[in-house]
Design goal:
The protein has nine helices and nine strands. The chain is an alpha+beta fold. It folds into two domains: 127 residues, Jelly Rolls; 105 residues, Arc Repressor Mutant, subunit A, CATH 1.10.10.60. Keywords: Transcription, Transcription regulation.
């Protein structure tokens, strides 16, 4: 992955991205937190993609190549951390829960208000203290490496309403079901059914951020029963599709 290193004099950044706007692939020397105060962000790396709605924050360790994509107009807040301060956080990219306290501190850090270096340092510590005990969220969609697995992933992504079994998909790509099952576990850390559910929820997050009604999102992402969609979505995202859709439209000044 191409890599450009950035050395910013200002440790905090606020970027407004238009719908579907992408950043170039890049990496930062320091680890940083990326918080979508409004909208939804995708983080894409060589190993997969992450989705962050406004109740989540993405942690990206220093040196990790990545790209962002906005879904809806997205107010992206970036807070850089020293290696010492970031020590309690994961050593790989991760999506973490944002509590009201961490959200308030992130917004304060990236506001235009003038604060002393000591006050800024205290706010950074509040964020890290809160996030270091926050559960890591399963909003990561690993990218398969095996060519056969990639072909299966493309077929599923192209038709989320399809119900083909792994055996049927295997016949299309010339691989046995047992082989594909083993590869899914080895390369993504999850089984095929779990991976497909994760993919469908990822797509649902984006459609909901575009304003599509919940019942239509359920159908578009392969759920015949809206109740089953709501249950699967809530389990992964931590809130119902309706509540998520409302929260993704909050302004930073909203509670």
């Amino acid at each position: 992955m191409p890599e450009t290193r950035h050395h910013c004099a200002q440790p905090e950044q606020t970027l407004l991205l238009g719908h579907a706007e992408r950043t170039a692939e890049h990496a930062h020397t320091r680890g940083h937190l990326v918080y979508p105060a409004t909208g939804v962000l995708s983080l894409v790396t060589a190993t997969g993609s992450w989705i962050a709605p406004p109740n989540r924050v993405v942690w990206i360790p220093g040196g990790a190549g990545h790209q962002h994509r906005a879904h809806g107009v997205t107010d992206m807040r970036v807070v850089f951390l020293s290696s010492e301060l970031a020590e309690p956080l994961p050593t790989r990219p991760a999506v973490l829960v944002v509590t009201p306290l961490a959200r308030a501190a992130l917004l304060a850090l990236t506001s235009s208000d003038q604060r002393s270096p000591a006050a800024v340092d205290r706010l950074r510590h509040v964020v890290v203290d809160d996030l270091s005990v926050a559960p890591e969220q399963p909003l990561h969609l690993p990218e398969p490496r095996d060519d056969r697995l990639r072909a299966v992933a493309r077929r599923v992504a192209d038709d989320l309403t399809g119900s083909a079994t792994l055996a049927e998909l295997g016949r299309e790509v010339g691989a046995a079901e047992r082989t594909l099952s083993r590869l899914f576990h080895a390369e993504t850390g999850m089984g095929f059914r779990q991976w497909r559910t994760q993919l469908r929820v990822h797509r649902a997050l984006l459609l909901l951020s575009d304003g599509m009604p919940v019942i239509d999102v359920a159908a578009a992402c392969g759920w015949a029963n809206p109740s089953a969609f709501i249950e699967a979505f809530t389990l992964l995202v931590g809130q119902s599709p309706g509540r998520y859709q409302r929260s993704s439209r909050l302004s930073p000044s909203d509670g």
